[in-house]
Specification:
The protein is built from five helices and four strands, in the order αββααβαβα. It is α+β, with helices and mostly antiparallel strands. It has two domains: 70 residues, no CATH class; 45 residues, no CATH class. Helix 4 links the parallel strand 3 and strand 4. Helix 1 packs antiparallel against helix 2. The termini are far apart. This is [acyl-carrier-protein] S-malonyltransferase.
Length: 133
């Protein structure tokens, strides 16, 4: 379908749902309602938002960004390239599988990557990161 609509390249993903698509608009609206009861504070560390491909600007609203993220395309490559431009050279993928690590390696093979899936891999990653310091 995507190629028929003019996409140059497609990559099927094994996911459990239609994440980051308009099919999740109702979930996005429900999240927006929940956020009305949440107080958001200025971030203490930089956060790169995948619907922006960068950090947010001062005038951008965190709840709006997060609700958009549920049902909008993400800019994963832009996020990685932005972080690289900010001096990030090490990434830790948390969760089962290595899908995101594979994407990162396609962007820049020199990036250090760690995958954390269980307690053993948490400890191994912490140990490896300590050695790098």
């Amino acid at each position: 379908l995507a190629k028929a609509k003019g996409a140059k390249r497609t990559m099927p993903l094994k996911t459990s749902g239609p994440f980051h698509t308009a099919l999740l608009k109702e979930a996005s609206l429900a999240l927006e309602k929940k956020f009305k009861d949440v107080t958001f504070h200025d971030m203490q560390v930089p956060v790169v938002f995948n619907t922006l491909g960068r950090e947010k600007n001062a005038d951008e609203n965190i709840p709006a960004i997060l609700t958009k993220q549920v049902m909008s395309s993400v800019y994963f490559e832009d996020c990685i390239r932005y972080m690289l431009s900010q001096g990030v050279d090490t990434f830790v993928e948390i969760g089962p599988g290595k899908v995101l690590s594979g994407f990162v390696k396609k962007i820049d093979r020199s990036i250090r990557l760690y995958q954390v899936q269980d307690q053993e891999s948490v400890e191994a990653t912490i140990s490896a990161l300590k050695e790098e310091l």
